[in-house]
Design a protein that fits this description.
The complex is a heterotrimer.
Chain A (H helix, E strand, L loop, with lengths): L6 H26 L4 H25 L26
Chain B lengths: L6 E4 L15 E4 L19 H7 L21
Chain C lengths: L19 H6 L1 H4 L4 H11 L5 H29 L4 H6 L3 H7 L24 H25 L3 H33 L5
Helix pairs in contact in C: 3-4, 3-7, 4-8, 7-8
The chains are: A mainly alpha, B little secondary structure, C mainly alpha.
Chain lengths: 87, 76, 189
Amino acid sequence: MKKQLPPEYYKLLEEIQAIDFVIVELSLYLNTHPHDMEAIKQFNEASHHSMLLKIEFEKQFGPLMNFGKSYSNYPWDVDDSPWPWQV
Amino acid sequence: MHSHSQFKYWRPFIGPFDPCKPIRVKSFSTPPQLYMNFQPPGLPQFQSPKQALMHGTLWPQLYSPYPDPNKGVEKP
Amino acid sequence: MFYYEKKLQYPVRVSQCNPMLAKFLIEQYGGADGELAAALRYMNQRYSIPDKVIGLLNDIAMEEFSHLEMIATMIYKLTKDATPEMMKAAGLGDHYSIHDNALFYHNASGVPWTAAYIQAKGDPIADLYEDIAAEEKARATYQWIIDLSDDPDLNDGLKFLREREVIHSLRFREAVEILKDEQGKKKIF
C-alpha cells in the first residue's frame, strides 16, 4: 500500500537520523575510549532520546525495524513501502 | 581552530615540451587523523545533532573540508 | 545477528537528473575501495582480530553497510527513470545490456567485484594497516567523485561519506595504538 509522505515525515526522520548519527559516532569513539564517563552518559541519553522520537515516528508512519524490534499493525506492515532508497 | 593546515601544496616540474597548459600548483588533503595517534577526550562538539550529521562528525576539530576552500588562491 | 532499520543513515538527495554520475558512483558500490569491500573486509576480519578490537570492527562494518545503502540510493535515484537512450548517453549502455536498470556490484569500468579486493592476514597489525589504507583510499575516491559532480545536494551526501572515512581511519589508528600497548605488557601464560 502506497503511503503519502507529508513534510512532517521528512522532518521527523531527519531528527532521528541526526540523533542516531550521534549514537553511531559515540559508539565508535567509546570502542577505543571505554573510560570516558561523559561520553557514556551522552550515549545513553542520546539512545533514550532516539527511542522517544521513534515511538512518535512509528505512531504516524508505521514500524521502522524488522524481526520484532518494532510492532506490526493490521494488516502486517513491517514490509510496507516506501523503502529508504525510494523516499 | 586547526593547528595543522588541511591542504598541502607542491609545484610539479614543468618541462619545455609538455603538450598541455601546465597546472603549476597541485594540492592534496591532509585531514586531521594524520596528526593524532589518539583522539583526546573532551574535544568540543558541534552544537546540535543536526550540525554533527551535516558535517559527518561530532567534533569540529575532526572535520576535513573538501574541496579545498582556498582553491584558486596562489600559494607559496 | 543482524536487524534492519528502514531508514538511511543520512538523508540522500539528488537534485539533478544526470545518470552519468551513476557511472562514477558505482565505483563506491562494487569497486576495490568501495563500501562493499570495506563492509566485507571488516566483517570478515572480526573473527581473527584480538577481542579488544572486535567491537570496533563490528561497528564500522555495520556502518559501511549503511553507506553501501546510501550509494545504492544515489544510483537508484539517478537511474530508475532512465530510458535505454538515457542510459546509453550516460555511458551505461554496457551495464544496461546486461542488467537493465538494476544495480550490480561492479566498478566504474564494469569490472565485477571480487574478494581479491580484500584481505585477512590473521596478523592484527597487518589487518589494521590494511583497514587504515582502505579508509584513505575510500576518502580519496570520494574526493574524485565530488570533483566530477556538480550536483550540490548529491555532493552533501558524498562529503558526509568522505568525512566518515576520515573518522574510521582515526579509529583504526587508535586500534593499532591499543594493540601496541597490549603487546608491550609482559604476560605469562
